[in-house]
């Protein structure tokens, strides 16, 4: 059996209103974020990765409206926003619209909130932008981190129907002046559910073809879009949700022997103008009856997104020296944390997925700063002769 590595495009390939015409700019950001998050987490030995890129996109699109200079141009470029406030707001609004769907067999709810220091002068235009994209604004005292964590966790728990319960701890909120939250909840039945009596245990392999474990493999023969997409080097299968098939999950199985990293890199590469995007082509394929084997699975992931975001090219907003967010507040701020929790369960009947993205904003430190909070080398000098007397490396911290 060929290797199975799961790649889940959480955020729903077919969510756009005009199915078959994916929003390439937003998707380009999503694939870049997935690629970078995987690379970053793999370096810590974490292999199962799940992100909700649209939630991150939405949160940083709002911040774009309060940014300027280098910070603005990085966000504009990486998020694929039009260089025009009105057009940006319209794009943001259309994305927010996608995140509202409630039919008999599909529920999708996107909610966002801003928790802010009452003493912080927030610009009225920024509040208007927040309101425009239906972000709830709460005035809070962030110095009481116990209460703030409680408020944020309650908001997220409610917005995700209880799927994400303890997204933040009080100690994660030290020094924050503003916290932006974006929550996403998705619950849907497959258009063609699996019969649980056909689910059987099966081996699961890595890209070298070595068995690395067992899974509960679901099976059915049902009409699905299915194609070899050479451009990215994968077999792609689409399983739709609900009777109207407006949402779907795509499973991308890399060609035998091809590492998942290569597939992620292919997905993230810049689409060319001339050729239609592989997703556009794929979504217009006919459905065929396919013998489909997909494992039942559950994933719970927490990702620190600052590094992955930096790799995509959004850098200065995270830099206490260089962040330019004058349109957010009169106090200079920077984004000091961005964390996302994702819970996802795929079963015979469908999928339940929830995500919460949290971005914390702190006061910027103006002027040079030196913080020896990682491994460092030290030297002791005799200054007149410029001679080193002692030299060392401090790399094993202890509280002395
Ligand atoms: C979803 O599937 C489950 C299990 O088959 C079923 O009990 C439930 O009624 C379905 N929901 C809808 C809205 O069709
Ligand atoms: C923080 O808020 C909680 C709940 O409102 C309250 O009980 C507690 O006394 C507050 N702590 C401080 C230090 O103000």
TrEMBL record:
**Signal peptide span per the entry?**
1-15
- Domain Serpin per the UniProt entry, residue ranges: 31-397
The answer to whether keyword Calcium applies is: no
Keywords on record: Protease inhibitor, Serine protease inhibitor, Signal
| One example GO MF annotation | serine-type endopeptidase inhibitor activity
The record's listing under Gene3D superfamilies reads: Alpha-1-antitrypsin, domain 1 (2.30.39.10), Antithrombin, subunit I, domain 2 (3.30.497.10)
InterPro entries per UniProt: Serpin_dom, Serpin_fam, Serpin_sf, Serpin_sf_1, Serpin_sf_2
List the Pfam families: Serpin
Work out whether the entry's keyword set contains Signal: yes
> What's a single GO CC term here?
extracellular space
Kindly give the PANTHER family that the UniProt entry links to this protein.
Answer: GH21475P-RELATED, SERINE PROTEASE INHIBITOR, SERPIN
Family the entry assigns: Belongs to the serpin family.
Q: What is the name listed in the Swiss-Prot or TrEMBL entry for this protein?
A: Serpin 7
State the organism of origin.
Answer: Manduca sexta (Tobacco hawkmoth)
């Amino acid at each position: 059996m060929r290797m199975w590595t799961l790649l889940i495009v959480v955020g729903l390939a077919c969510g756009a209103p005009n199915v078959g015409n994916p929003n390439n700019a937003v998707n380009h950001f999503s694939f870049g974020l997935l690629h970078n998050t995987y690379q970053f987490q793999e370096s810590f030995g974490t292999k199962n990765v799940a992100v909700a890129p649209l939630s991150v996109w939405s949160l940083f699109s709002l911040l774009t409206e309060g940014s300027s200079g280098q910070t603005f141009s990085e966000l504009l470029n990486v998020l694929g926003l039009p260089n025009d406030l009105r057009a940006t707001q319209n794009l943001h609004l259309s994305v927010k619209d996608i995140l509202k769907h409630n039919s008999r067999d599909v529920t999708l709810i996107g909610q966002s909130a801003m928790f802010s220091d009452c003493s912080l002068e927030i610009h009225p235009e920024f509040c208007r932008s927040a309101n425009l994209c239906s972000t709830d604004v709460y005035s809070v005292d962030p110095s009481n981190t116990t209460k703030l964590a409680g408020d944020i966790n309650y908001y997220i728990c409610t917005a995700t129907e209880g799927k994400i319960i303890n997204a933040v701890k009080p100690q994660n909120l030290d020094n924050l002046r503003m916290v932006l939250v974006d929550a996403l909840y998705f619950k849907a039945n497959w258009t063609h559910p699996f019969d649980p009596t056909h689910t059987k245990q099966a081996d699961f392999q890595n890209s070298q073809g070595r068995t690395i474990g067992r899974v509960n493999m679901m099976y059915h023969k049902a009409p699905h879009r299915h194609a070899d997409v050479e451009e990215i080097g994968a077999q792609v299968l689409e399983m739709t949700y609900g009777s109207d098939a407006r949402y779907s999950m795509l499973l991308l199985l890399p060609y035998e022997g091809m590492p998942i990293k290569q597939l992620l890199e292919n997905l993230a590469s810049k689409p060319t103008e001339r050729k239609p995007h592989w997703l556009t082509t794929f979504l217009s394929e006919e459905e065929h009856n396919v013998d489909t084997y997909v494992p039942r699975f559950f994933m719970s992931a927490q990702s620190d997104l600052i590094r992955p975001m930096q790799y995509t090219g959004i850098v200065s907003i995270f830099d206490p020296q260089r962040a330019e967010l004058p349109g957010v507040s009169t106090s200079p701020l920077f984004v000091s944390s961005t964390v996302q929790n994702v819970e996802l369960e795929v079963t015979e009947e469908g999928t339940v997925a929830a995500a919460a993205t949290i971005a914390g904003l702190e006061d910027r430190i103006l002027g040079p700063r030196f913080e020896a909070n990682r491994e460092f080398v030290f030297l002791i000098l005799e200054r007149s002769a410029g001679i080193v007397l002692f030299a060392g490396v401090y790399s094993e911290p202890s509280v002395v």
